[in-house]
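User: structure tokens for this one?
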Amino acid sequence: MSTGTGFGTGALNLNQAMIAQITEGMDVVDTSGEHIGKVTDLRVGDPDGIDVGGGEARNASEGIAMAFGGHREPNVPQPLVGRILRQGYIKIDDKRHLRKDHHHYATAEQIASVDGKTVRLAVAVGDLIPSLDN
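Assistant:
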């Protein structure tokens, strides 16, 4: 899980507050009720944050992971990185596929509710942002 909570100078907005209730391993369903998979990473987000862009690591553990062929999160096309980090996101391991590296990102705005151990999305799985590792 990302270590930065991304809390800005103000109070959490509704979308950020929902992400703050989410933990890794929670089930994720889309707007039709289809089970997509489980949360594997998340970040609350910082609306006042700047676009971090670039390829440098943000902390020591991320630097080590990148040195061994890993990637930084979120692993999306560069033009989307800043927006997703500002809004906050969850990374979903898509269990509908046999591949272990099929992931999607849902922004805070795409999360409808958090109910028990289930994250319910306000969009269909096709509207999610695919990971570059897909």
